[in-house]
Amino acid sequence: MSSSLAPEVDGLDELFVEFGQDLRSHGLIVGSDDVITFCRSLTTLDPTDIMDVYWAGRTTLVRKRDHIPLYNERFQAFFFNLSETETDVRKIKLKSSAVAGTTLEVPNVDNSLPGETSEDETKMGYMASASEIWRSKAFSECSDEELNRFRKLISLMRLSPPKRRTYRTQVTKNGAMLDMRRMARDTMRTLGEPKELVFMSRKEKLRSVVFILDVSGSMADYSRNLLQLAYSARRANQKVEVFCFGTRLTRITRSLDKRTPDDAMRLAGESVLDWDGGTRIGDALTQFVKESRRARLGRGAIVVICSDGLDQGDPAVLEKSMETLSRLAHRVVWVNPHKGDNLDFKPSTIGMIVAEPFIDAIYSGHNYKSLETFASELTRMR
Q1: DSSP 8-state secondary structure symbol assigned to residue 206
Q2: Who contacts 131 (Cβ-Cβ below 8 Å, separation ≥6)?
Q3: Scanning 162, 344, 366, 373, which has its CA 20 to 30 A from the CA of 171?
Q4: Please, which residues bridge with residue 335 across strands?
Q5: Distance from C-alpha of 91 to C-alpha of 82, rounded to nearest angstrom
């Protein structure tokens, strides 16, 4: 099975074998042929989709209807009841693919007659088909409980840091450039032709990323989830800087270095004194540009501004700061929840209209699916 999986999900076949062993150790009759059938069935399904894994296992590993409750219990415990110190990336990846805790609940078995569909079975079908709905549900429409679940899922995101090519080179087995200097030295040592061709490529380093998050009142439905995304990015790349602003700019990078997301969010909230207040984007960016010139925070970095563009400051100040920032940064990206799923989005707020000429790309960030898309695009930015 491993040969049919993409590199990013390599190792899941061993995880599924471990799940079969877990069922066997808890009293379920599971043979080696059942486990092989389970793994083979997932080659035609999506092994990273938790609903596909659930139904594939239930179909191939459960022999009797009476065993379904035990299967459900062990499935929940094995894949989702993970401790805070869990290091198995495979389980974390599968858990993060489930959109909310309610979609992880599995049905109980009632005393329905053969051929009848129980209410719980129908509910499970709805859960499977509702996954995309959960991923596409706007944060502004979610309850507090749903938002807490989304934040936990966002904290599980593993963001691969973007990289940049340097002018330094390194020897590689294959490449587009020959290392002529090394080959010339080898030729002089052997007093003849070089023994083999030597290729080289340019080294890569992590590119700096700067998040500038709007935490004003108009962004109340989105700011904490965007901050959670910045926390995940900081965990993956120590060259990530995070700032928050309402009427003034506050650096919260050190607050996000805490081990648990809850502690990081609490410290960040205590550091930002103008949370849920007014918005002065131009003044905040002007302050950032001045700090960047001193500490080189934004020079050559990908600067991500998360704001709805509802600016109460002077448009001329915003225009000047954006112009300076566009020259300073490698790329300026704007995340605006008001964009939604609109592919033909046209800025309508004064802040976005003024800033648009200096923006390289605009993303949404209004729901979990859009954050996944943005995180994937951020990884590929060069």
Answers
A1: E
A2: 49, 51, 98, 99, 103
A3: 162
A4: 306, 363
A5: 8
* Range list for CATH 3.40.50.410 in the chain: 207-380
**Listed range (177-191, 197-211, 275-289) with the worst mean pLDDT:** 177-191
Roughly what angle, to the nearest 10 degrees, separates helices 144-155 and 368-380?
Answer: 20
Residue 213: both structure tokens together = 């998050």
Q: Among the listed ranges 44-53, 296-305, 311-320, which one has the minimum average pLDDT value? A: 44-53
**Residue 249 amino acid letter:** L
Q: 207-380 in CATH: which number?
A: 3.40.50.410
Cβ neighbors of 343 (< 8 A, separation 6 or more) are none
Angle between helix 89-97 and helix 50-61 axes, rounded to 10 deg: 110
Q: In this predicted model, which residue has the larger pLDDT, 254 or 149?
A: 254
Short-list 77, 101, 88, CA closest to 23? 77
What residue has token string 């380093």? 205
* Model confidence, pTM: 0.63
Tokens read off for 243: 């700032």
**Cα-only R_g, the chain:** 26
Dist. CA 269–CA 85, nearest whole Å: 25
Give residue-wise pLDDT tens across range 102-146.
Answer: 344 444 444 443 344 444 443 443 343 444 556 778 888 887 777
Q: Is 138:341 a contact under the CB 8 Å cutoff?
A: no
Judged by DSSP in three states, 155 sits in helix
d(CA 304, CA 335): 7
- Residue 277 is classified by DSSP as S
CA dihedral 337, 343, 347, 349 (to 10 degrees): -30
Angle between helices 12-25 and 68-79 (to 10 degrees): 130
